């Protein structure tokens, strides 16, 4: 098996794993009432962009081969690195959901009885779910042997993150005030000790 084909298989298995991880948490979260939602239309557009970059563009390339001119051969080193990054992404994705419990939502929402989560991975970073998405996009860049399919995830996550993060933190400051501001001083956004 070529490294490029192996990379595609690893990416596809990771994608399936992502949905398997998300499903039970999404079901549980639907049962918890939403007190406040922010930017519903903007949220739908941003989530669609993320889905396009992480799922749709690679799927179109896999199904059609277009654009074949942007294909290249992967090395096994790239595939191993991509698999390790993907594994870390999936672990962090699952851990973030587990630590948030019923407070998790796909869009910007404050849930009934919402509290600031400071345990688990949230003791190191405020937004580990975004960290997991950045890692997923990096893994995709290492695993898919087509420039457009490989980089579409990084572009999509950059749009999602940089458009959404300030709105999310403003919403949390409104909901929790000085308690959230103190948490912001104690932690970094997505990279422990750095950013």
Automatic annotation (TrEMBL):
* Record-annotated membrane-spanning stretches: 6-25, 45-68, 74-93, 133-162
Instruction: Identify one Pfam family in the record.
Output: ICMT
Query: What's in the keyword line of the UniProt record?
Result: Membrane, Transmembrane, Transmembrane helix
Please state where this protein is localized. Answer: Membrane
Fetch the InterPro entries from UniProt.
Answer: ICMT_MeTrfase, Isoprenylcys_mtase
Where is it mostly found? membrane
Give the way it sits in the membrane.
Multi-pass membrane protein
PANTHER family xref list: PROTEIN-S ISOPRENYLCYSTEINE O-METHYLTRANSFERASE, PROTEIN-S-ISOPRENYLCYSTEINE O-METHYLTRANSFERASE
Protein name, please?
Isoprenylcysteine carboxylmethyltransferase family protein
Q: Which organism is it from?
A: Tardiphaga alba
Q: What is the lineage of its organism?
A: Bacteria, Pseudomonadati, Pseudomonadota, Alphaproteobacteria, Hyphomicrobiales
């Amino acid at each position: 098996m070529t490294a490029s084909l192996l990379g595609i298989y690893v990416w596809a298995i990771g994608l399936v794993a992502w949905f398997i991880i998300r499903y039970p948490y999404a079901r549980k979260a639907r049962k918890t009432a939403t007190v406040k939602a922010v930017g519903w239309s903007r949220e739908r557009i941003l989530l669609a962009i993320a889905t396009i970059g992480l799922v749709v563009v690679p799927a179109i390339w896999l199904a059609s081969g277009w654009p074949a001119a942007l294909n290249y051969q992967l090395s096994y080193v790239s595939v191993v690195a991509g698999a390790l990054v993907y594994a870390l992404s999936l672990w962090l994705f699952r851990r973030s959901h587990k630590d948030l419990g019923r407070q998790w939502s796909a869009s910007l929402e404050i849930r009934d009885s919402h509290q600031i989560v400071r345990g688990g991975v949230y003791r190191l970073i405020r937004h580990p779910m975004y960290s997991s998405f950045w890692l997923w996009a990096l893994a995709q860049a290492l695993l898919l042997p087509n420039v457009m399919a490989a980089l579409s995830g990084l572009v999509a996550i950059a749009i999602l993150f940089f458009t959404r993060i300030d709105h999310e933190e403003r919403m949390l400051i409104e909901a929790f005030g000085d308690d959230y501001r103190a948490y912001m001083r104690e932690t970094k956004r997505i990279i422990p000790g750095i950013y």
